[in-house]
Amino acid sequence: MTPSEMEARIVRYGDLQPCKTAFIDAHTPGSDQKENFTIIGGGVSESADQHVHITIPHGFNIGAAGQPPKCRNSLHSHRTAEVFFVLKGRWRFFWGRYGDAGEVVLEVGDIINIPTGIFRGFENIGTDYGMIMAVLGGDDAGGGVIWAPQVIEDARDHGLVLGQNGKLYDSKKGESLPDGVSPMPVLNEEELKSYPEMTPAQVVGYGVRRYNDLMSLAGKEPVLVIGEKGVIRDKPGFEVGFLTRGSASTDMHAHDRPSVLMPVRGHWRLIWEGGEAVLNPGDTCSIPADLQHTAVPAMTGEASMYHIVGTDDPAGATWLA
User: Which ranges carry the Cupin type-2 domain (predicted)?
Assistant: First the structure.
């Protein structure tokens, strides 16, 4: 693979293209300044305006959310795994039918594997623009987003209607539901019973791991963060690993499917059969299947990186199944 071919598979942080109309709460006060990024795979955006940087199937999706202070993402659920790590800022994650069942605050490098089947949201509680990176299970990310009823109702009051076809229609732009397309139905009380109200101990104890703890665990060997034998034991259709300066190796290796490198801190030198490139925090790099490669820190100082690769486990409800 030539350097130019590899560069086409690296999405640089500075080249990310945001969409401000990705979801039904795009006009709702408190959520109307958020930006959605779809980096690898189609994601779950409901807007035709969403730009997809890399369309090659990986068995999972990579995306991101960028938000100014006090901006939140409304309560929603997914049928497949949703994993976040904080790239910039300080974030509050909350969950439950009304978002009051529990919450946790995450800092840079912290990771959360949110259980499938619960309503969740998140808010930038820092003082500057923040960014969280996301991994969603499955190539189609479970077929979309399930919104808490009040989110759909609030959005309608501000001009946005979600069709049963999963597409958004903006009355402020003169749009309306096409003939034959009904509004997305709101979940009724009986259906809402299948969305559990989980305790902080359940969600945090199960799915949250702190950056400093992972730095310690990966002191000499890369650590499997999410996987059947990971520190978070789950099989969401992909594995998440974590490596540091001390656990990086110059030994070349390959995977039988595409994998993804996502630096958190430091600059990393990606080496493969055919060239080299430098990866920086916020960059996302897709490594082709069967390509011999490795990554090592390119400069002195702290260095850390998440690594994602698909598995043969079906992407769907995992530990709640």
Answer: 69-132
Residue 26: name the closest of 42, 62, 43, 50 by CA.
Answer: 50
The residue ranges of every structural domain in the chain are 15-208, 211-310
The rounded distance, in Å, linking the Cα atoms of 214 and 93 is 20
Residue found under tokens 């077929």: 143
- Residue 25 CA to chain centroid, in angstroms? 18
Q: Is the dihedral of CA 286, 20, 83, 161 positive or negative?
A: negative
For the segment 245-267, the average pLDDT, to the nearest whole number, is: 97
Average pLDDT in the 78-89 region? 95
Predicted pLDDT of residue 321: 37
Q: Each residue of 18-72: pLDDT tens digit?
A: 998 878 888 899 889 999 999 999 776 667 778 999 999 999 999 999 999 999 9
Neighbours of 222 (CB within 10 A): 17
CATH topology for the 211-310 domain: Jelly Rolls (2.60.120)
Q: β-strand 111-114 against 82-88: which pairing, if any?
A: antiparallel
**Which of 59, 60, 42 shows the shortest CA–CA distance to 51?**
42
**Third-level CATH fold of 15-208:** Jelly Rolls (2.60.120)
Assessment of whether the complete model's pTM goes beyond 0.90 = yes
Residue that is written with structure tokens 């000499």 in the block: 220
Q: What does the alpha-carbon distance between residue 120 and residue 125 come to, in Å, rounded to a whole number?
A: 16
